[in-house]
Amino acid sequence: MTNDKLLTVAIHTFDKAKELKSILEHEGITVVLHNVNLTQPNLSSGVRVRIKEQDLPLALRIIENSEIFILPKDSATNTTQPTILVPVDFSSYSMKACSLAFDIATRHNGRIVLLHAYVPQTRINLQLTPVLDFTSPDEDTIEQGQDTLDDEMSKAAKKRLDDFSLTLKEQIKGGQLPPVVFTTRTVASVPEDAILELAKDIKPYIIVMGTRGADKKERELIGSVTAEVLDSCRQPVFTIPEQSRLRTLDDLRDVILVSNLDQNDLLALDTLYRLAPNLTMNVNIVHIAGKRSRGTANQLELDMMLEYCRTHYPLCNFTICSLDTDHGIDYLKSLDNDGKTSLIVIPNKRKNILARLFNPSLAHKLLFHADVPLMAIPV
Protein backbone atom coordinates (compact mmCIF):
# COMPACT_ATOMS: atom_id res chain seq x y z
CA MET A 1 0.00 0.00 0.00
CA THR A 2 1.48 3.33 -1.03
CA ASN A 3 1.74 6.27 1.32
CA ASP A 4 -0.38 9.10 -0.14
CA LYS A 5 -0.15 11.45 2.85
CA LEU A 6 0.64 14.99 1.62
CA LEU A 7 3.33 17.16 3.18
CA THR A 8 4.05 20.85 2.60
CA VAL A 9 7.63 21.38 1.43
CA ALA A 10 7.44 25.10 0.64
CA ILE A 11 5.17 28.16 0.82
CA HIS A 12 5.59 30.67 -2.02
CA THR A 13 3.82 33.22 -4.15
CA PHE A 14 1.82 31.63 -6.94
CA ASP A 15 4.50 32.21 -9.60
CA LYS A 16 7.29 30.74 -7.43
CA ALA A 17 5.10 27.83 -6.38
CA LYS A 18 4.23 27.09 -10.01
CA GLU A 19 7.93 27.19 -10.95
CA LEU A 20 8.81 24.76 -8.14
CA LYS A 21 5.93 22.50 -9.12
CA SER A 22 7.26 22.37 -12.67
CA ILE A 23 10.77 21.44 -11.48
CA LEU A 24 9.58 18.69 -9.16
CA GLU A 25 7.14 17.22 -11.66
CA HIS A 26 9.86 17.17 -14.31
CA GLU A 27 11.84 14.94 -11.93
CA GLY A 28 8.91 12.58 -11.46
CA ILE A 29 7.38 13.92 -8.22
CA THR A 30 3.62 14.48 -7.96
CA VAL A 31 2.84 18.01 -6.70
CA VAL A 32 -0.35 19.67 -5.47
CA LEU A 33 -0.75 23.42 -4.92
CA HIS A 34 -3.06 24.56 -2.08
CA ASN A 35 -4.51 27.95 -1.12
CA VAL A 36 -4.57 29.26 -4.69
CA ASN A 37 -6.86 32.21 -5.41
CA LEU A 38 -8.64 30.73 -8.43
CA THR A 39 -10.14 34.07 -9.55
CA GLN A 40 -6.81 35.92 -9.52
CA PRO A 41 -4.07 33.26 -9.23
CA ASN A 42 -1.26 35.68 -10.02
CA LEU A 43 -2.10 37.61 -6.85
CA SER A 44 -2.10 34.50 -4.66
CA SER A 45 0.27 34.56 -1.70
CA GLY A 46 1.04 31.81 0.76
CA VAL A 47 0.60 29.05 -1.82
CA ARG A 48 1.55 25.67 -0.35
CA VAL A 49 3.58 23.24 -2.43
CA ARG A 50 2.58 19.76 -1.27
CA ILE A 51 4.00 16.34 -2.16
CA LYS A 52 3.57 12.74 -1.08
CA GLU A 53 5.40 11.84 2.12
CA GLN A 54 7.37 9.10 0.36
CA ASP A 55 8.84 11.67 -2.06
CA LEU A 56 10.14 13.98 0.69
CA PRO A 57 13.88 13.00 0.70
CA LEU A 58 14.17 13.29 -3.07
CA ALA A 59 12.16 16.53 -3.19
CA LEU A 60 14.33 18.18 -0.54
CA ARG A 61 17.48 17.23 -2.41
CA ILE A 62 16.11 18.74 -5.62
CA ILE A 63 14.89 21.92 -3.88
CA GLU A 64 18.25 22.45 -2.16
CA ASN A 65 20.00 22.20 -5.52
CA SER A 66 17.28 23.51 -7.83
CA GLU A 67 19.75 25.52 -9.92
CA ILE A 68 21.18 22.25 -11.23
CA PHE A 69 17.81 21.10 -12.52
CA ILE A 70 16.68 24.37 -14.16
CA LEU A 71 19.95 25.77 -15.55
CA PRO A 72 19.66 26.08 -19.34
CA LYS A 73 22.18 24.22 -21.48
CA ASP A 74 24.99 26.12 -23.15
CA SER A 75 24.56 29.07 -20.77
CA ALA A 76 27.55 31.31 -20.27
CA THR A 77 30.06 30.17 -17.71
CA ASN A 78 30.07 32.18 -14.49
CA THR A 79 33.55 33.67 -14.43
CA THR A 80 33.40 34.25 -10.66
CA GLN A 81 33.62 30.50 -10.04
CA PRO A 82 36.40 28.08 -10.94
CA THR A 83 35.44 26.05 -13.99
CA ILE A 84 36.32 22.39 -14.46
CA LEU A 85 36.27 21.31 -18.10
CA VAL A 86 35.33 17.66 -18.73
CA PRO A 87 35.47 16.36 -22.32
CA VAL A 88 33.15 13.34 -22.64
CA ASP A 89 32.53 10.63 -25.22
CA PHE A 90 29.88 8.80 -23.12
CA SER A 91 32.22 5.92 -22.25
CA SER A 92 32.66 4.36 -18.80
CA TYR A 93 35.86 6.35 -18.31
CA SER A 94 34.00 9.57 -19.13
CA MET A 95 31.75 8.81 -16.17
CA LYS A 96 34.83 8.14 -14.04
CA ALA A 97 36.22 11.53 -15.04
CA CYS A 98 32.91 13.15 -14.08
CA SER A 99 33.06 11.56 -10.62
CA LEU A 100 36.45 13.16 -9.95
CA ALA A 101 35.47 16.47 -11.57
CA PHE A 102 32.34 16.78 -9.43
CA ASP A 103 34.43 16.15 -6.32
CA ILE A 104 36.95 18.84 -7.31
CA ALA A 105 34.14 21.29 -8.11
CA THR A 106 32.56 20.69 -4.69
CA ARG A 107 35.83 21.38 -2.86
CA HIS A 108 36.46 24.60 -4.80
CA ASN A 109 32.87 25.84 -5.09
CA GLY A 110 33.24 25.48 -8.82
CA ARG A 111 31.09 24.56 -11.76
CA ILE A 112 31.53 22.07 -14.59
CA VAL A 113 31.38 22.36 -18.36
CA LEU A 114 30.79 19.06 -20.15
CA LEU A 115 32.10 19.16 -23.71
CA HIS A 116 31.30 16.68 -26.46
CA ALA A 117 32.95 17.17 -29.84
CA TYR A 118 32.14 15.26 -33.00
CA VAL A 119 33.63 15.40 -36.48
CA PRO A 120 30.98 16.66 -38.96
CA GLN A 121 30.22 14.62 -42.05
CA THR A 122 31.47 17.38 -44.36
CA ARG A 123 34.87 17.17 -42.68
CA ILE A 124 34.93 13.40 -43.15
CA ASN A 125 33.99 13.77 -46.82
CA LEU A 126 36.76 16.31 -47.37
CA GLN A 127 39.27 13.85 -45.94
CA LEU A 128 37.99 11.02 -48.14
CA THR A 129 37.48 12.95 -51.41
CA PRO A 130 40.03 11.95 -54.10
CA VAL A 131 42.32 14.62 -55.47
CA LEU A 132 41.06 13.90 -59.00
CA ASP A 133 37.33 13.43 -59.52
CA PHE A 134 36.06 13.40 -63.11
CA THR A 135 32.43 12.47 -62.29
CA SER A 136 31.16 16.07 -61.71
CA PRO A 137 27.92 15.31 -59.81
CA ASP A 138 25.40 18.05 -59.02
CA GLU A 139 27.17 20.25 -56.44
CA ASP A 140 23.90 21.62 -54.99
CA THR A 141 22.57 18.10 -54.41
CA ILE A 142 25.80 17.03 -52.70
CA GLU A 143 25.81 20.15 -50.52
CA GLN A 144 22.20 19.63 -49.45
CA GLY A 145 22.91 16.00 -48.64
CA GLN A 146 25.94 16.93 -46.53
CA ASP A 147 23.97 19.63 -44.71
CA THR A 148 21.30 17.05 -43.87
CA LEU A 149 23.89 14.59 -42.59
CA ASP A 150 25.57 17.31 -40.50
CA ASP A 151 22.20 18.33 -39.06
CA GLU A 152 21.42 14.72 -38.15
CA MET A 153 24.86 14.30 -36.54
CA SER A 154 24.36 17.49 -34.55
CA LYS A 155 20.96 16.35 -33.26
CA ALA A 156 22.33 12.90 -32.39
CA ALA A 157 25.30 14.41 -30.52
CA LYS A 158 23.07 16.75 -28.52
CA LYS A 159 20.66 13.89 -27.75
CA ARG A 160 23.48 11.72 -26.41
CA LEU A 161 24.81 14.59 -24.29
CA ASP A 162 21.29 15.28 -22.97
CA ASP A 163 20.96 11.61 -21.99
CA PHE A 164 24.38 11.70 -20.32
CA SER A 165 23.32 14.83 -18.39
CA LEU A 166 20.15 13.10 -17.22
CA THR A 167 22.24 10.22 -15.91
CA LEU A 168 24.38 12.68 -13.93
CA LYS A 169 21.27 14.38 -12.53
CA GLU A 170 19.87 11.01 -11.46
CA GLN A 171 23.14 10.31 -9.65
CA ILE A 172 22.95 13.73 -7.97
CA LYS A 173 19.39 12.98 -6.85
CA GLY A 174 20.48 9.56 -5.58
CA GLY A 175 23.48 10.93 -3.68
CA GLN A 176 26.12 9.16 -5.80
CA LEU A 177 27.42 12.52 -7.03
CA PRO A 178 27.66 15.79 -5.07
CA PRO A 179 25.34 18.61 -6.19
CA VAL A 180 27.31 20.72 -8.65
CA VAL A 181 26.02 23.10 -11.30
CA PHE A 182 27.04 21.94 -14.77
CA THR A 183 26.42 23.06 -18.33
CA THR A 184 26.86 21.22 -21.62
CA ARG A 185 28.31 22.08 -25.00
CA THR A 186 28.42 20.19 -28.27
CA VAL A 187 30.90 21.28 -30.91
CA ALA A 188 31.29 20.12 -34.51
CA SER A 189 35.07 19.86 -34.63
CA VAL A 190 38.03 17.57 -34.19
CA PRO A 191 37.89 16.76 -30.44
CA GLU A 192 41.38 17.95 -29.50
CA ASP A 193 40.85 21.23 -31.36
CA ALA A 194 37.49 21.75 -29.65
CA ILE A 195 39.00 21.13 -26.20
CA LEU A 196 41.93 23.47 -26.74
CA GLU A 197 39.76 26.24 -28.21
CA LEU A 198 37.24 26.08 -25.37
CA ALA A 199 40.07 26.01 -22.81
CA LYS A 200 41.42 29.24 -24.32
CA ASP A 201 37.96 30.78 -24.06
CA ILE A 202 36.89 29.79 -20.53
CA LYS A 203 40.37 29.29 -18.96
CA PRO A 204 39.37 26.35 -16.74
CA TYR A 205 40.87 25.74 -13.34
CA ILE A 206 41.64 22.19 -14.50
CA ILE A 207 40.70 19.80 -17.33
CA VAL A 208 39.68 16.29 -16.27
CA MET A 209 39.80 13.59 -18.95
CA GLY A 210 39.04 9.88 -18.83
CA THR A 211 41.36 7.63 -20.85
CA ARG A 212 41.53 4.06 -22.07
CA GLY A 213 43.76 1.44 -20.50
CA ALA A 214 47.42 1.39 -21.56
CA ASP A 215 46.96 -1.72 -23.70
CA LYS A 216 44.25 0.00 -25.78
CA LYS A 217 46.04 3.35 -25.92
CA GLU A 218 49.08 1.76 -27.53
CA ARG A 219 46.87 0.76 -30.47
CA GLU A 220 45.86 4.40 -31.00
CA LEU A 221 49.30 5.88 -30.46
CA ILE A 222 48.98 8.29 -33.39
CA GLY A 223 46.36 10.97 -32.97
CA SER A 224 45.41 10.49 -29.34
CA VAL A 225 43.11 13.30 -28.23
CA THR A 226 44.41 13.23 -24.65
CA ALA A 227 48.06 13.28 -25.73
CA GLU A 228 47.48 16.32 -27.92
CA VAL A 229 45.72 18.16 -25.09
CA LEU A 230 48.51 17.26 -22.65
CA ASP A 231 51.15 18.59 -25.02
CA SER A 232 49.38 21.79 -26.04
CA CYS A 233 47.14 22.97 -23.21
CA ARG A 234 48.09 25.83 -20.89
CA GLN A 235 45.92 24.58 -18.01
CA PRO A 236 46.53 21.59 -15.70
CA VAL A 237 45.23 18.34 -17.17
CA PHE A 238 44.19 15.44 -14.91
CA THR A 239 43.83 12.10 -16.73
CA ILE A 240 41.98 9.09 -15.27
CA PRO A 241 42.59 5.65 -16.85
CA GLU A 242 39.51 3.44 -17.09
CA GLN A 243 41.03 0.86 -14.71
CA SER A 244 41.96 3.39 -12.01
CA ARG A 245 40.39 3.10 -8.56
CA LEU A 246 40.60 6.87 -8.05
CA ARG A 247 37.12 8.38 -7.76
CA THR A 248 37.61 11.39 -5.46
CA LEU A 249 40.58 13.35 -4.14
CA ASP A 250 40.20 11.52 -0.82
CA ASP A 251 41.63 8.49 -2.63
CA LEU A 252 44.96 10.28 -3.10
CA ARG A 253 47.46 8.57 -0.81
CA ASP A 254 50.79 7.88 -2.52
CA VAL A 255 51.79 10.52 -5.05
CA ILE A 256 54.84 10.71 -7.30
CA LEU A 257 56.15 14.19 -8.17
CA VAL A 258 58.56 14.10 -11.11
CA SER A 259 61.28 16.63 -10.38
CA ASN A 260 63.87 18.59 -12.32
CA LEU A 261 65.14 20.22 -9.11
CA ASP A 262 64.19 23.70 -10.31
CA GLN A 263 61.42 26.24 -9.70
CA ASN A 264 59.04 24.34 -11.95
CA ASP A 265 58.86 21.64 -9.28
CA LEU A 266 57.58 24.22 -6.81
CA LEU A 267 54.89 25.35 -9.28
CA ALA A 268 53.74 21.77 -9.76
CA LEU A 269 53.78 21.02 -6.04
CA ASP A 270 51.84 24.18 -5.26
CA THR A 271 49.21 23.28 -7.90
CA LEU A 272 48.81 19.84 -6.30
CA TYR A 273 48.53 21.40 -2.83
CA ARG A 274 45.90 23.95 -3.92
CA LEU A 275 43.91 21.17 -5.57
CA ALA A 276 43.71 19.25 -2.27
CA PRO A 277 44.95 21.56 0.52
CA ASN A 278 43.63 19.58 3.49
CA LEU A 279 44.70 16.09 2.48
CA THR A 280 47.55 14.15 4.03
CA MET A 281 49.52 12.50 1.24
CA ASN A 282 52.75 10.59 0.91
CA VAL A 283 54.69 12.43 -1.79
CA ASN A 284 57.75 10.77 -3.30
CA ILE A 285 59.81 13.31 -5.25
CA VAL A 286 61.57 11.50 -8.08
CA HIS A 287 64.33 13.46 -9.75
CA ILE A 288 65.08 12.14 -13.23
CA ALA A 289 68.41 13.41 -14.50
CA GLY A 290 68.39 14.74 -18.03
CA LYS A 291 70.42 12.97 -20.71
CA ARG A 292 72.86 15.89 -20.85
CA SER A 293 73.48 15.94 -17.11
CA ARG A 294 76.08 13.80 -15.44
CA GLY A 295 74.40 11.01 -13.53
CA THR A 296 72.02 11.77 -10.69
CA ALA A 297 71.69 14.87 -8.50
CA ASN A 298 74.05 15.42 -5.58
CA GLN A 299 72.80 14.83 -2.07
CA LEU A 300 72.89 18.51 -1.09
CA GLU A 301 70.39 19.42 -3.85
CA LEU A 302 68.07 16.62 -2.76
CA ASP A 303 68.29 17.62 0.90
CA MET A 304 67.51 21.26 0.12
CA MET A 305 64.45 20.27 -1.93
CA LEU A 306 63.25 17.92 0.78
CA GLU A 307 63.67 20.54 3.50
CA TYR A 308 61.71 23.12 1.50
CA CYS A 309 58.80 20.73 0.94
CA ARG A 310 58.60 19.61 4.55
CA THR A 311 58.65 23.22 5.75
CA HIS A 312 55.99 24.59 3.38
CA TYR A 313 53.65 21.57 3.19
CA PRO A 314 53.63 20.08 6.69
CA LEU A 315 50.51 17.94 6.13
CA CYS A 316 52.32 15.79 3.57
CA ASN A 317 55.00 13.18 4.14
CA PHE A 318 57.92 13.63 1.73
CA THR A 319 60.66 11.36 0.45
CA ILE A 320 63.07 12.00 -2.40
CA CYS A 321 65.30 10.05 -4.74
CA SER A 322 67.31 10.62 -7.91
CA LEU A 323 67.51 8.30 -10.92
CA ASP A 324 69.17 8.48 -14.30
CA THR A 325 66.94 8.90 -17.34
CA ASP A 326 66.51 5.28 -18.39
CA HIS A 327 65.97 3.89 -14.89
CA GLY A 328 63.67 6.77 -14.00
CA ILE A 329 61.34 6.25 -16.97
CA ASP A 330 61.28 2.47 -16.42
CA TYR A 331 60.44 3.09 -12.76
CA LEU A 332 57.53 5.37 -13.59
CA LYS A 333 56.15 3.00 -16.23
CA SER A 334 56.16 0.17 -13.68
CA LEU A 335 54.18 2.06 -11.05
CA ASP A 336 50.80 0.72 -12.17
CA ASN A 337 52.00 -2.76 -11.21
CA ASP A 338 52.43 -1.91 -7.51
CA GLY A 339 48.75 -0.97 -7.02
CA LYS A 340 49.74 1.77 -4.56
CA THR A 341 50.52 4.89 -6.54
CA SER A 342 47.48 7.18 -6.70
CA LEU A 343 48.84 9.88 -8.99
CA ILE A 344 51.89 11.00 -10.96
CA VAL A 345 52.39 14.79 -11.09
CA ILE A 346 54.60 16.09 -13.92
CA PRO A 347 55.73 19.64 -14.71
CA ASN A 348 55.12 19.69 -18.45
CA LYS A 349 57.05 22.05 -20.73
CA ARG A 350 55.41 23.09 -23.97
CA LYS A 351 57.10 21.85 -27.15
CA ASN A 352 56.61 22.69 -30.80
CA ILE A 353 55.05 20.11 -33.08
CA LEU A 354 58.37 18.73 -34.40
CA ALA A 355 59.79 18.34 -30.92
CA ARG A 356 56.63 16.53 -29.81
CA LEU A 357 56.87 14.19 -32.79
CA PHE A 358 60.53 13.18 -32.40
CA ASN A 359 60.97 13.71 -28.65
CA PRO A 360 57.61 13.41 -26.86
CA SER A 361 57.31 14.67 -23.31
CA LEU A 362 57.48 12.35 -20.31
CA ALA A 363 53.79 13.00 -19.67
CA HIS A 364 53.07 11.89 -23.25
CA LYS A 365 55.11 8.69 -22.82
CA LEU A 366 53.50 7.77 -19.51
CA LEU A 367 50.02 8.36 -20.88
CA PHE A 368 50.48 5.42 -23.24
CA HIS A 369 52.49 3.09 -21.02
CA ALA A 370 51.12 3.38 -17.48
CA ASP A 371 47.64 2.93 -16.01
CA VAL A 372 48.15 5.51 -13.28
CA PRO A 373 46.25 8.83 -13.03
CA LEU A 374 48.40 11.65 -14.31
CA MET A 375 48.36 15.39 -13.64
CA ALA A 376 50.38 17.44 -16.11
CA ILE A 377 51.16 20.98 -14.93
CA PRO A 378 52.12 23.40 -17.74
CA VAL A 379 55.35 25.26 -16.91
Could you say how many structural domains there are in total? Answer: 3
Q: Count all strands and give the number.
A: 13
Strand order of the largest sheet: 6-5-4-7-8-13-12-9-10-11
* CATH hierarchy class name of the largest domain: Alpha Beta
**CATH topology of the largest domain, which one?**
Rossmann fold
What does this structure look like?
It is built from 14 helices and 13 strands. The protein is an alpha/beta fold and 379 residues long. The protein folds into three domains: 6-64, Alpha-Beta Plaits; 83-129 and 139-211, 3-Layer(aba) Sandwich (Rossmann fold); 229-378, 3-Layer(aba) Sandwich (Rossmann fold). It has a ten-stranded mixed sheet with strand order 6-5-4-7-8-13-12-9-10-11, with helices on both faces. Helix 10 (263-275) links the parallel strand 9 (254-259) and strand 10 (282-288). Helix 7 runs parallel beside helix 9 (225-232). The longest helix is centred in the middle third of the chain and has 36 residues, at 139-174.
Topology of helices and strands:
Elements: E1 6-12, H1 14-26, E2 31-34, E3 47-52, H2 56-64, H3 66-70, E4 83-87, H4 92-107, E5 111-118, H5 121-128, H6 139-174, E6 182-188, H7 191-202, E7 206-211, H8 214-217, H9 225-232, E8 237-241, E9 254-259, H10 263-275, E10 282-288, H11 299-312, E11 317-323, H12 325-333, E12 341-348, H13 353-358, H14 362-369, E13 374-378
Parallel strand pairs: 4-5, 4-7, 5-6, 7-8, 9-10, 9-12, 10-11, 12-13
Antiparallel strand pairs: 1-3, 2-3, 8-13
